Amino acid sequence: MPTTQALIAFCIASLVIILIPGPSVLFAVGRSLALGKVAGIVTVVGNGLGTSVWLIATVLGLGALIASSEIAFNIIRFGGAAYLVYLGIQAFRHRNDHKLDLGAAPPKQSIWRTLREGFFVGVSNPKTMVFFVAVLPGFVNYPAGNIMFQLLILGLIFEVMGVISDSIYAIAAGMARDWFATDPRRLGIITGTGGILIVGLGLYVAIF
After folding, report:
1. 54: which residues sit within 8 A by CB, 6+ positions away?
2. Which of 83, 117, 142, 146 is the most buried (most CB within 10 A)?
3. CA-to-CA distance for 110 and 117, rounded, in angstroms?
4. Number of domains in the chain
5. CA–CA separation, 74 and 57 (whole Å)
6. What is the spatial distance between Cα 124 and Cα 82, in angstroms, rounded to a whole number?
7. pLDDT computed for residue 133 by the predictor
8. What letter would DSSP give residue 136?
9. Residue 56 domain-assigned?
């Protein structure tokens, strides 16, 4: 196991990184605004499953290998960015599909599709990949213990903290959407805003 000091330091570092809104948070917020808070939470879960791929890769020693390849890194980065832009454009295009629905129910989308979209965004998140590959190993107690087990424990702590934090963001955005949804015109505006936010996120991932 990591030392107590290393564990505390890792939790603090993780909290700081998680609380700064990044691709995962912004995408979850965008989904909540466009589809409602349930979809936002499902997106967070899918995103967590996606980022777990990098955790497993790091534990198995593949993360550093991928990170050392600029071509592989850019394929994942730009592929994820393009996918985000596509999802954002779709949300914006269909912003008024439910404009006449005075019940203001969020647009319908299957849970599996929402989960899948969250997964792909999570696995293409360069921020998480860099954290797991470059930061996570620094908190491992190398002289003693099972290195792979320590990496796994620290990574799971990060994942749990991330899911809880992102869910809070998603629920808050979903609650704001519910208020806007009391007026069909507001619903179109907030759904379109969610789409624009996701497109902007895709451009951010591609540029930075």
Report:
1. 63, 123, 128, 129, 132, 133
2. 117
3. 11
4. 1
5. 17
6. 10
7. 74
8. G
9. yes
- 39, part of any domain: yes
Which positions ≥6 away from 187 have C-beta within 8 Å? 98, 99, 101, 104, 177, 180, 181
Report how far apart, in Å, the C-alpha atoms of 19 and of each of 15, 131, 159 are.
6, 14, 13
pLDDT at 160: 93
pLDDT mean values, one per 10 residues, the chain (208 residues): 78 76 77 84 93 88 66 70 75 62 56 89 78 74 73 90 90 77 63 74 68
Q: Cβ-count burial of 15 within 10 angstroms (0-12 exposed, 13-18 middle, 19+ buried)?
A: middle
**Phi and psi of 182, rounded to 5°?**
-70, -15
SS3 state of residue 195: helix
Would 9 be classed as within a structural domain? no
Neighbour count for residue 130 (Cβ, 10 Å): 15
Query: What is the Cα–Cα distance from 82 to 76, expressed in whole angstroms?
Result: 10
What region, left, alpha or beta, does residue 125 occupy, with left being phi > 0 and alpha being psi -120 to 50 degrees?
Answer: beta
Long-range contacts, stretch 182-186, CB < 8 angstroms, 24+ apart: 182/104, 184/98, 184/99, 184/100, 184/101, 184/102, 184/104, 185/99
Please tell me the distance from the alpha carbon of residue 6 to that of residue 11, in angstroms, as a whole number.
Answer: 9
Domain that holds residue 124: 23-207
pLDDT of residue 187: 60
Tell me how far apart the alpha carbons of residues 1 and 60 are, in angstroms, rounded to a whole number.
17
Q: What is the largest CA-CA distance in the chain?
A: 65
CA angle 67, 152, 146 (to 5 degrees): 105
